[in-house]
Amino acid sequence: MSAGDTEVRRELVAANRILGHEGILDAFGHVSVRHPGNPGHFLLCRARSPENVELADVLEFDGDGELAGEAGPIPYVERFIHAGVYEARPDVTAVCHNHAISILPFSISRSVRLRATINASAMFGDGVPVWDIAAEFGDSTDMLVRNMAHGRSLARALGAGPVVLMRGHGSVVAGNGLRQVVSRCLDMDRSATAQLAVATLGATRSFTAAELAPHADLPPGATRDDRAWEYLLHRAGLDQDEERGHGEGR
Question: What's the start-to-end Cα distance of the chain, in Å?
């Protein structure tokens, strides 16, 4: 295993623990990263509560969501979410599936979409799409993404965007790297909370197209995400784990 591969695995463990600590992931949900040395594969931990994962829990999967190695560890059932997105989106290098409470009302509402309402939600534009598994697979599923057909359908709903909601289930957040995905998950949660709160206040003012457009004088996303990453590592008590390899040898 190369030094770069090991570092990506450590960052994946940190992303799991941060999202667990921040309440985006609880006992369920998962985050993955595209394999740094084999873009057709991805890394995802075994089926374990994200806040408890360690380096030894990281597994490698192929493009069809199957274990690329020895059988034994139990994988997440919905690993096909990640496989479907990576297959459809070469630009995506990290994916998170979560059941954040704040976004669930928007996943079932017939009249209100999750949209840009505060600065952190500019990525939502005029609305986040909602994937309804019943539209393609009928109303007798358990609503879990259990195979590549489900994963590919979900990826089509995501399209070129950063977020897709899953009716009555949760969301999928995609990005260019684990740090961006972690930032986007937290921005999604804050934005949904704010939109729900402001709904009780009556008329609101929307962003203009110019306000939503990228501004050249602002720092690049990587700078913002790195700054947030340092802060979140500290909040989760992981800045001290940097020297210990995020649970390696425990």
Answer: 20
Check the CA dihedral 198-203-188-153 and report its sign: positive
Tally of domains in the chain: 1
The mean pLDDT value for 82-87 works out to 98
Check: pTM over 0.90? Answer yes or no. Answer: yes
CB atoms within 10 A of CB 54: 17
Alpha carbons 124 and 241: distance in angstroms, whole number: 34
CA pair distance 32, 45, nearest whole angstrom: 8
Domain membership of residue 5 (yes or no) is no
Residue pLDDT, tens place only, 88-118: 999 999 999 999 999 999 999 999 999 998 9
Residue 53 located in a structural domain = no
CA distance 221 to 223: 5
Q: Is residue 145 part of a domain?
A: yes
The position carrying tokens 């709903």 is 157
Contact in structure between 96 and 19 (CB atoms under 8 Å)? yes
Sign of the C-alpha dihedral computed for residues 183, 184, 185 and 189 taken in this order: positive
Q: What is the CATH number of the domain that holds 187?
A: 3.40.225.10
CA-nearest of 39, 82, 59 to 173 is: 82
The answer to whether 59 and 45 have CB atoms below 8 angstroms apart is yes
